[in-house]
Specification:
Layout: E1 12-15, E2 18-21, E3 36-39, H1 47-60, E4 62-63, E5 78-82, H2 89-105, E6 110-119, E7 129-130, E8 141-147, E9 152-156, E10 181-185, E11 190-194, E12 199-201, E13 209-217, E14 228-229, H3 230-233, H4 236-241
Antiparallel strand pairs: 1-2, 3-11, 4-5, 5-6, 6-13, 7-14, 8-11, 8-13, 9-10, 9-12
The protein binds 2-oxoglutaric acid.
Residues 64, 78, 117, 126, 131, 154, 199, 201, 211, 227 line the site of 2-oxoglutaric acid.
């Protein structure tokens, strides 16, 4: 009898009489060295739309995590407001235009679970984290950040989407650490990043900021179940590769 070929990784699926495995899902940005795509001037934003998101996110948003290696206690200055599924026509048109842009960049992916993120003036930086499970080799989705106003930013660690958190066959032990980069966005700019990319919401020391965020994946949509904090969930070899950013003022 010939040698049995091991099954490829992936969820088991019952076929006629036998148990086979589906191929593991491919990460939409697997071929991208940085782990993100920055696209300037994607969709115009009217003052009315900006006002709509600013006032709803400020009044109705709920606090999200905002602690880090350097600030173990949240300052409670970062919040999110889920965008209603049937927003007013101007907002609906903006989201439709963004969906079209995401589809152009990454065919087959659709945005879902839009939220407006709001930082009060003085908001500290978030802890570094990944949105989708970084212990899985392939990632079904990407994160999307859209700037509703100038001076929007996200801190990212380019290349960190390829780190092997599971440690199986980890080749990263003697590689130099990955450097943090601040991606700056002006109003109308779009950033799409691998769901495994280590990133952190920026600090907003002087002015408040409102921006849009969502996940994008192929249907059926997979919403990341939790945030994967470097501080709490990452094994040592990953933390050596992604050193904690210096606090504001020391950068
Ligand atoms: O606040 C931001 O701009 C990003 C927030 C973020 O990455 C998150 O909450 O997962």
């Amino acid at each position: 009898m010939g040698k049995k070929t091991p099954d490829p990784p992936g969820p088991p699926v019952q076929t006629r009489g036998s148990l086979r495995r589906l191929p593991a899902p491919r990460s939409p940005l697997a071929g991208n060295d940085l782990g993100y795509v920055y696209s300037p001037n994607c969709v115009p934003v009217t003052d009315r739309t900006l006002g709509f998101f600013r006032s709803n996110a400020r009044k109705r948003g709920t606090r999200i995590f905002n602690h880090s290696e350097h600030h173990p206690v949240s300052d409670r200055r970062r919040s999110q407001w889920p965008v209603p599924s049937r927003p007013c026509p101007g907002v609906g048109a903006l989201l439709a235009a963004l969906a079209e842009k995401v589809e152009q960049l990454l065919p087959g992916l659709q945005p879902h679970h839009w939220v407006a993120l709001h930082s009060e003036a003085g908001c500290q930086a978030q802890g570094a984290h990944a949105d989708y499970d970084p212990f899985q080799a392939a990632c079904p989705g990407v994160g999307v950040l859209f700037a509703l106003e100038d001076d929007t930013a996200l801190d990212v660690w380019p290349g960190s989407h390829r780190l092997d958190w599971s440690g199986a066959g980890d080749p990263s032990a003697d590689r130099p650490p990955l450097a943090k980069r601040r991606v700056r966005l002006d109003q109308g700019d779009l950033l799409v990043f691998d769901g495994r990319l280590v990133h952190a919401g920026a600090d907003y020391p002087h002015r408040s900021n409102v921006r849009l965020h969502c996940c994008a994946s192929a249907p059926p949509f997979q919403v990341p179940g939790q945030t994967w904090l470097l501080l709490k969930h990452a094994p040592d070899h990953v933390r050596r590769q992604v050193p904690a950013p210096l606090p504001t003022g020391l950068q």
